[in-house]
Amino acid sequence: MRLALLSATAALVFTAACSVDPGPVQTGTTAVEVGKADTVRAEIHMNAGELWAEGGASRLLDATFRYSERVGRPAVHYDVMGARGVLTVESPQNAGGMKGNATNEWRLRMSSEVPLDLSVRLGAGESHLDLSQITLRAAEVNMGAGNMTFRMADRYSQDVNVQINGGVGEAHIRLPRETGAVVDAAGGIGSVQAGSLTKRGDGKYYNSAYADDKPAVHMKVRGGVGDIVFE
Alpha helices, DSSP H only, in the chain? Predict the structure, then answer.
């Protein structure tokens, strides 16, 4: 009964939202050079929409945005303090929201060379985080409502700490193949599908490459409403 009421409410909200004109779709690009920074913290805050993030850029950031006029163009800021840079990509504060047939797509290509600490906060929508070509030091992802894919590189030369906080949706996580990985995972209303990982006596999941005396990915995952799938 409760699920039926929630579904009915969601349908009414969706129907009302569809009557709002989001305005024409616009396209914009942004390029950011790394400057004198040796390491960078990148913060990505998206209220709603679809996000693609990957490595392979010759600059710190090459970004392409497609967005409805009502949604607004994302704000990009970059500051360097000493040898450390801080890059922020975020939804505009006065955005009209994802109503009607609104579009909001971000495609972010980031440097493969600069060591990166990544923080991602998502609202509603899909996210595709391919970090396999990024020199990753640490990552924190806060999911909202929507599915996420999270892909890591096969090999790391130093420890990498990752925190993923689930929302409402399914998370597909691809761990390294050649570097060890240990995962502290707990589902919310959903399940943890460990794939080829082995659960040990401490309650954590390990891949076959893990060794105590070698670099490893240390991941903590807390599920929300949805499954956590390791690949």
Answer: 2-17
d(CA 27, CA 67): 7
Query: What is each CA distance from 158 to 36, 74, 118, 217, in whole angstroms?
Result: 23, 33, 16, 8
pLDDT tens-place string over residues 64-117: 999 999 999 999 999 999 999 999 999 998 765 666 789 999 999 999 999 999
Across 149-176, average pLDDT = 95
For the residues of 11-45, what is the DSSP string, one character each? HHHHHHHTTS----EEEEEEEE--TT-SEEEEEEE
Domain boundaries, the chain: 22-142, 156-231
Tokens of 221: 């995952």
- Under a CB-based contact definition with an 8 Å cutoff, are residues 164 and 143 in contact? yes
Burial string for 178-187 (b: 16+ CB within 10 Å, else e) reads: ebbbbbebeb
Structure tokens at 214: 């070698």
Q: Can you state the percent helix, strand and coil of the chain, rounding each to 5?
A: 5, 50, 40
Q: Cα separation of 45 and 106, whole Å?
A: 11
CA-closest candidate to residue 55, choices 114, 156, 133, 139: 133
Asked if residue 205 lies in contact with residue 198, where contact means CB atoms within 8 angstroms, the answer is yes
Q: How far apart are CA 230 and CA 177, in angstroms?
A: 12
**CA dist list (Å): 51 to 65, 90, 181, 184:** 10, 12, 26, 26
